[in-house]
What we know:
Layout: E1 2-6, E2 15-20, H1 22-28, H2 31-38, E3 42-47, H3 63-73, E4 78-81, H4 90-94, E5 101-104, H5 116-121, E6 125-128, H6 134-149, H7 152-160, H8 169-173, E7 187-191, H9 195-204, E8 210-214, H10 221-226, E9 229-230, H11 233-239, E10 242-245, H12 259-263, E11 270-273, H13 282-290, E12 295-298, E13 318-320, H14 331-347
Parallel strand pairs: 2-3, 2-4, 4-5, 5-6, 7-8, 7-10, 8-9, 10-11, 11-12, 12-13
Antiparallel strand pairs: 1-3
Helix pairs in contact: 2-14, 6-9
InterPro entries: D-isomer_2-hydroxyacid_DH (IPR050223), D-isomer_2_OHA_DH_cat_dom (IPR006139), D-isomer_DH_NAD-bd (IPR006140), NAD(P)-bd_dom_sf (IPR036291)
Domain D-isomer specific 2-hydroxyacid dehydrogenase NAD-binding: 143-325
Pfam families: 2-Hacid_dh (PF00389), 2-Hacid_dh_C (PF02826)
Amino acid sequence: MTETLSADGGPGALRVGIACNRRTRDLTVTPSSLEKLRGVADVVWADFEDDSKGYTDPPPYDAAAEKRLASFAADLDGLVISKGCPKVTPSVLDAAPRLKLVGDLQGDRFGRRVDVAAARSRGVRAVDTTHGSSDPVAEWALGLILNGLRNAGSLFRRMIAGEVLFTDRMELRADPAYLRGELTGKTVGLVAFGHIGRRLVELLAPFRVNVLVHDPYAPRVLADVYDLTMTSLSRLFELSDVVVVLAPLTSQTRGMIGAAELGALKPGAVFVNVSRGPVVSSDALLERLRRGDVVGCLDVFDPEPIPADSELRTLPNVFLTPHIAGVTAECGPRFFDLMVDELLRCFAGHETRHDLVPREDLG
Length: 363
């Protein structure tokens, strides 16, 4: 079904199509941003329903769905896609000669749902708004840091098991597992420095921490802008009191954190992962956490969901959450709000802010 949401433009008016499943529409399209977009373009909708549950991958190839998408895109200036929509292939792009921008409401920055190279070669901007969830992920990372520094997960386990803890305050002071708790003045290492990392640095500012960053793709000028130190991955693990993994999952980052890096963590350190589980070697992480002298705070796993019999569930120095960092009521609509801003920039002749990277550029 294709539904016209606005049809007040005359001949030659800009036209934007939104293609995804109905649930995504209901969760992300806000009336205020829709009205903002309708102020400059006619807006039409195409429902593409499928049974996939993945975060970013399009449905398996379907020639009929591709043909329908190509027909839908034929007279569009902007195409917004998300869950349910088939991949934007060269055939779809060739059918849409007016197209100026294709935007994925969720794409993890690397264009699984768009043939980015084909779009670029045809002069079509390809963007996504994955960073719409950056703020809640950064907030949850801060929460996990504070939790880990007190090993609060262990205290929670013990209390719900019926233990009465620390009725003698001197007993608490004598327990080294809970004395390393202040974040103020600590050294925090960030593995990657994209939107989430930059927001996290803002949240860390009141704690006057020393920030180390490993990100070979981050412009070095950011070290001056945010008053931090760029360093190697090995030095970051050696020197940090807290390590936060923020790297996206690519062919280059898969397994980038292994036994050598985890082995370099100092006793008492906190290891936080809010990115993707496969960035870290699961075996090496489990082996390091078994030693009991560091605290792990994990929102993501490999495999995911975490198996019911995983040893990670039983370790007293591990705090777990089920991949919730980027999921809040507020951030869902933000994806569409940001996409409308990108469309308006593009239509006004300005540069877009959040261009996708072709996967072949990642090595």
